[in-house]
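Render this sequence as a predicted structure.
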Amino acid sequence: MKQTQAVGIDLGTTYSCIAWLNEHGHPVTIPNQEGELATPSVVFFDEHEPIVGTEALRNAIARPERVVQNAKRHMGNVDKFWRIGTNRYNPVQISGLILRKLIAAAQEQIGEISEAVVTVPAQFSDAQRHATVMAGHSAGLEKVEVINEPVAAALCHVLGNEGLAFTELAVDQQLLVYDLGGGTLDLAIVSYSSDQVRVVASDGDLELGGLDWTQVLVDIAAERFLMDFNEDPRQDPYSHQFLALEAEQAKRSLSVRPRAAVTVQHEGDRRTYQIEQEEFEHIGRSLLKRSNAITRRILADNDFGWAHVDVVLTTGGSSRMPMVRESLKKLSGRTLNSSLSPDQSIAHGAAYYAGMLLSNQEYTRTIFNSQASSRLSKIQQQSVNARGLGILVRDTETGNRVPHYLIPPNTALPTARTHVFGTVVAQQTKVHIRIVESGAGPGKPHSILGDCLITDLPTDLSEGSEVEVTISYDAQARVHVSARELKSGKSAETEIIRQENMSGQLQQEVDEASNVGQTVQAVTKSEPEKAETHSQDAESLAGPNDSVSDEWATVSAGLSEFSEFADPADSAEQPVLLCNSCGTVLSLKGRCSRCNSSPAGRKRHTGTKKKPARRPTASKPGMAGTAPAKRKRKKTAARKTAARKTAGKTAGKTTQKKRSPEDDFWDLVD
């Protein structure tokens, strides 16, 4: 029987940390080789030898061209790389080097480590999660699990803080986790009891973190220097790097003092500027507005009021800034819970999750005593997906391809949606479907996750043979696709071709494909006990004489124009939305020309979450959920209704704003 350790790693944008659970089930942070509990996520290449951590940070000023920082902000971007000498390094390789240092230090103290839990922002896409797992493998780990950072913080709070490690909660509680790290902002609404931690909703911003507040100080000092010497230190990599490190130290100082000094040196000139906390807060107010907007959004989108939040839990190093704390305190109207270590709590929560996984594996012998093992095995954790998951469909009005999401954001994980497709030609052995994820927040474009090739279907299938396809998120929000041919019951091999592998895979398929296009289109409704039917998409593979580039151009642009109720047989390569009842092509707004109705079988509230139970609260003026507030909302709603009726009578026919395809989808969901 294999013995292993419960190890959790916070792979951060600016600093990283590793922890493990001791035999009592308590998390312990493991210092690196230099004795530091937090390791700078910086890599310096001394010739061909990579150096990670504080020593790399020291070399950032002298040799910035050989230093890589903030690689996490580029995870999942296959086009990003850093050229060091004659070599190129991508974000996965850089992150792997950081993880390798952490693991090497830990192995010197606790023994061999073959598996670990690594944290990721809740808004990370499947590609970014996959890149994180690959970084773990490149660091020598055999098995890598991922957990969302705010969920890790919640586990740390529930299991380790306030003496809750081995006690029973009297009542269920709900908390808002506010995690502001060096590179990202993560929010989560978490409901927890004695034996369960359940995420209700998550939100965040992958481009809002302590780095952005540091940049504010860089700009303040640089603008002053520019006025004094008519030279901009940001234009020189050496001067800019020196200034960035100075600004980072000043930001930390301003968290505890009313002013801090920032030294700028450039082109032989050197000057030190005093920056007041008030000035810092004034210029950085736009960042606070973004943070507050996201906080309001996660509550509003999930029908939550502050009266339904028992605890506001802050973590992440950047949450120490007074302006952030005061803004969040004013917004929530309550005292913040800052009992968690901003730098170590995420790693501790990941270690708890590793312990939970190990305690439920019969084949694994852990170091935990019976009490710790029993407690960890009882805890259940459930998260949600941050991004919608679906497929591309054809807009019959414009001919363009648009995303149609089968699994909406904030759906409890794990989850799956099953749909039945029909083959278009006889003897079809493969189908080709494009999978997409919604953007990381409102207004952000969707991303193509990859193409799913369903292969090895029986060779004697007739036209219209049914193939059942299931798209799912697992507990770690990773995407899986499976398929089954219903007539024979044979399971088909499936594969998600990620963007970095698409060109090569498509060329391989081009070489293997026959002149018969491998295409599918939706023909029947999905399983009634699962999701409602949404539109399906499929694409043909290029013929043997077609180029890969032409294939992609065709896929992206669409082949022909359709009227509102066009016959899909006119272009079998361009699937469209179909009615569940009669199979007629639907308009993009979901109207059926034959049934004259919305798509049959589609529920008005498909995929939405159960609203949290309303608990009685004391009637405080202005508090959401109280009697005075409810009466006020009813009066306001009545006035708005009256105003709309009046406007309708006087305005007559009103020109409505053109709606996007995603607007129509969310109307169906909401």
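Summary. The chain has a mean pLDDT of 76. DSSP finds 15 helices and 29 strands in the chain.
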